[in-house]
Amino acid sequence: MSLAVTLRAPVRRAVFSTSVRGVEFRPKAYRRFTTEGPPPAPKSNTALYASIAAFTAAAAGYYLYNSNSDTSREATTAVKSAVQSGKAATKFTPTKEDYQKVYNRIAELLDEAGDYDDGSFAPVVLRLAWHASGTYDKDTGTGGSNFATMRFEPESLHGANAGLHVARGVMEKIKQEYPWISYGDLWTLGGVAAVQEMAGPKIPWRPGRIDGFASNATPDGRLPDASQGSQHVRDIFYRMGFNDQEIVALIGAHALGRCHSDRSGYEGPWTFSPTTFTNDFYKLLFDEKWVWKKWNGPKQLQDKNTGSLMMLPTDYVLTQDKSFKKYAKAYADDQNLFFKDFAAAFAKLLELGVPPQQFVVAEPWTLNTLEEQKA
């Protein structure tokens, strides 16, 4: 069901009409890049920093794996201290401008998807950022974006993370160009770029995450199970520290992308514009008549009119649960409200599990899109 697209331009903030059925819209223009070309080879200080960081991380890893689990926190603290020492030794301290360059490179790569899905890596990169952060448990303080543990098995093999090797592969290209950035910062920054470059709201973001070890990986079952109902949704999101309004706003990320039967088991896009961030997800929930799809896959809904759109059981509960429905209807009626609430909730999600003292700045930054940098 993928739409082959070889060229695309950044979609502007025009809301695609949901009254036209059966067509997935994508603009047919060329993107003109005005950012720098590929960065030059790292200077010696950056290479030295990377070497120091790798050595200290390996040393800390050896210590961790040869100690009992109670020393895990000490080991990860040692990694942070060693990396910071490496930066100090080489007098290399990334600035906001450095992170903007990383953002720009991510934004460029999002458009280099070729025939993949609907011609953009943005939806799968957004999913990577979401799933890497959504494992947080506020009661135990474990999980979240801090250690980027989806790099390790078995977390990388969890059913909810099926297909995310694609996004990790895209991000690995960036990591090779900018070895100084942590995976946690890279993946979450990728989520920011995915939303903003697909015409979504500005997402406040700041760096400071560190890379952990396989022992920091979280158990399976912490991410939403799409086959469940409202109680399951609350259990998952309340565990992270979100309320009903934030839950409904975060589920709005389904404005982008599609499901794949060879990954989640489900199939199809949520909207007619799966590479544009809008409030159409909520509009369609209320404006379309949804029926159960007759097929051999898991239970999912499809729109009765065209049969080309899908909704998951956990999506449909937004129209059935009284509290959820209130917020979903408000977002269907007001895209600006949705953008505001999504930006706040998503920024909160991306920081889950990161000790406040690790962040390099007190207040998050707002990074510019490629289009904004052309002005």
TrEMBL record:
Its EC number is 1.11.1.-. PROSITE patterns: PEROXIDASE_1, PEROXIDASE_2, PEROXIDASE_4. GO terms for cellular component: mitochondrial intermembrane space; mitochondrial matrix. It catalyses: 2 Fe(II)-[cytochrome c] + H2O2 + 2 H(+) = 2 Fe(III)-[cytochrome c] + 2 H2O. Residues 118-354 form the Plant heme peroxidase family profile domain. Keywords: Heme, Iron, Metal-binding, Mitochondrion, Oxidoreductase, Peroxidase, Transit peptide. GO terms for biological process: cellular response to oxidative stress; hydrogen peroxide catabolic process; response to reactive oxygen species. Gene3D superfamilies: 1.10.520.10, Peroxidase, domain 2 (1.10.420.10). It holds the Pfam family peroxidase. It is found in: Mitochondrion intermembrane space; Mitochondrion matrix. Its main location: mitochondrion. GO terms for molecular function: cytochrome-c peroxidase activity; heme binding; metal ion binding. InterPro entries: Ccp1-like (IPR044831), Haem_peroxidase (IPR002016), Haem_peroxidase_sf (IPR010255), Peroxidase_I (IPR002207), Peroxidases_AS (IPR019794), Peroxidases_heam-ligand_BS (IPR019793). It is an enzyme of class 1 (oxidoreductase). Belongs to the peroxidase family. Cytochrome c peroxidase subfamily. PANTHER family: CYTOCHROME C PEROXIDASE, MITOCHONDRIAL, THYLAKOID LUMENAL 29 KDA PROTEIN, CHLOROPLASTIC-RELATED. Destroys radicals which are normally produced within the cells and which are toxic to biological systems. This is Peroxidase.
